[in-house]
Amino acid sequence: MEGMVPPPDGHGNASxxxxxxxxxxxxxxxxxxxxxxxxxxxxxxxxxxxxPPRPATAVRGREELLEALGGAMEAGAPVPHVLTGPGGFGKxxxxxxxxxxxxxxxxxxFWLRPGSVASSMVEAAVEVGGSRQExxxxxxxxxxxxxxxxxxxxxxxxxxxxxxxNADRPEELDPENRPGDQLGWMRASPGGFVLVTSRVDxxxxxxxxxxxxxxxxxxSAASEALADHAGAGGAAGLAGAEELARRLGGVPLxxxxxxxxxxxxxxxxxxxxxxxARLDEGVGALDELAAPFVTGGDVERGLLSxxxxxxxxxxxxxxxxxxxxxxxxxxxxxxxxxxxLRRLPMSRMSGDPLGFxxxxxxxxxxxxxxxxxxxxxxxxxxxxxxxLHPLVSETVRAGFTTSELPLLEKAxxxxxxxxxxxxxxxxxxxxxxxxxxxxxxxxxxxxxxANAASMVRASMSDTAQLNRRLIHxxxxxxxxxxxxQMWRDAEELLGPTHPLTLRAxxxxxxxxxxxxxxxxxxxxxxxxxxxxxxxxxxxxENTLDARFQLALIAIRRExxxxxxxxxxxxxxxxxxxxxxxxxxxxxxxxxxxxxxMRKGDPVSAGQEFREVRLIRARTMGERHPLTAxxxxxLGRAAFESGDLNAARSWFExxxxxxxxxxxxxxxxxxxxxxxxxxxARGEQPEPEx
Length: 689
Hints:
Blueprint: H1 63-75, E1 81-84, H2 91-104, E2 108-112, H3 117-127, H4 132-138, H5 142-154, E3 160-164, E4 192-198, H6 203-206, E5 210-213, H7 219-230, H8 241-247, H9 252-264, H10 272-278, H11 284-290, H12 299-302, H13 304-318, H14 322-332, E6 338-340, H15 359-371, E7 376-380, E8 383-387, H16 390-398, H17 405-417, H18 423-440, H19 445-450, H20 452-472, H21 476-494, H22 499-514, H23 518-536, H24 541-556, H25 560-578, H26 583-598, H27 602-619, H28 625-641, H29 644-661, H30 667-681
């Protein structure tokens, strides 16, 4: 250009500094210039695995399900199929077995894992003939990619099985629509069969897909699965297989872990009985022993604790309050107990540690647990009840720390609110509370000594409530052992005449009497009556309770006059101290009426029983077990008076409550049924002792 000064020779084509990309350096140009840039490097391939897992053992107890899935796969399903159920119950195992069948039959199998569904679907389309260049062009546009993928899968020359495993977050299948709408990655196709596995047991999410719910293994299928993993050549070759499988609740993951432990540690556990004994300390021992087999990212789905912790996280993402609710239910619901929904009244579910604001929030929390398969809602005995699988309940409790202590207090509050309504539930709950307190209690001796009274009171509350239910349910030997230990702890920490020590000694004597050790119990109660009267006064609750028990001993010995005199004194004292509707006053009144009846005046006794029943029905409810107890005695009085129709009616009313609250085989239930039948036949009964 005119006016431009050329650079000095040797410097016109020089370059300094960093250069990124292509550099074109020229000095003199004569004619046109053509620049050929190299083709860009291809993007890296998506590093996904579409290969299915291979079943390590035979799949037990799922034969009918596999046949149904195989039939649908061969026939060409008009909708996808979905396997739902709690974590660890074998959904992936069933899907892997179906994949193995499809592979043997010449089908192409695509196995998609969580977190890589979109990239895996694109790779599947490429494998059936889609262009890699087109795949790269569309993969960033979700809707366009889905349409492109399904166009190729629909037209595939060879049938395929597509398994989307562990789709526990349905939004990964379609963030904008329900997966069941079939607008995302889950669709039916003429080219193959689509199977999804998920913890989300919500038909509304998947409809119109065909949903199959997977439960625990039952009977011989569970013990055979355990033996397979143990390499025992069948349950017959593994001593204790049936008992261990039952202890593990038929949960396939637990059976797999137990089998691997038995196969690896043959010296420690020569048979299933040995491992069963180790599990007496809690199901956490299973995870502890199996942990070396499960490493890295498999922990979440490979250990019981990991499986249900993952479920809890999935629940917490949607309904945070559902997590403390499940922990509360695990206290109430061990051993497969059914928990009546009425035991969770909204009036007592607000505030810490639960924090529910209204019934809608509580309902959503329950539903979120149901959707994850952690809780089942059914109807039993005419009311709505909640069920937890026993192993889920136990595993959740095994994860409790001291931060759950407020939850134990809330559980005690709820137990007190409907006390004695559901003895079996209450027995389970108080047993769990006592064990959890013992495990979580501080081991600092100085702290225990500094708070001895409160520590004994808390322990006594748990143990006493537990013992009442043990005695009520006929488990008197266990009650006696725990009561004796409670008394010794209280005496050591507080001294022999402290009110709490006397209360603990009272529970021990009560257990002795219910074991049939009447003379020993009488000796204890007389000593308690004198000690408590001397140190705490004649109207102290320990003094009156000891006198009440001495009057009961008089009834056992058919000393009706003595019993009447003592119960009348106790009744007057409780009315004076606590009022006429106090539960202890009513108990004394009821026993006084019984002594009157047995002395030969059933008409007067019936009038007294009726008064007791009226108060209990009003203050406790028509279906309270103590109201039913009054029904039983009204039936006895009517029977003794010769009014057999009225007697049968009262016994029937009592029987309905006792069958639900105590079970059909409880001695009190059987006794009520026997009296009902005698009234129906018009028989004269033998005197009851």
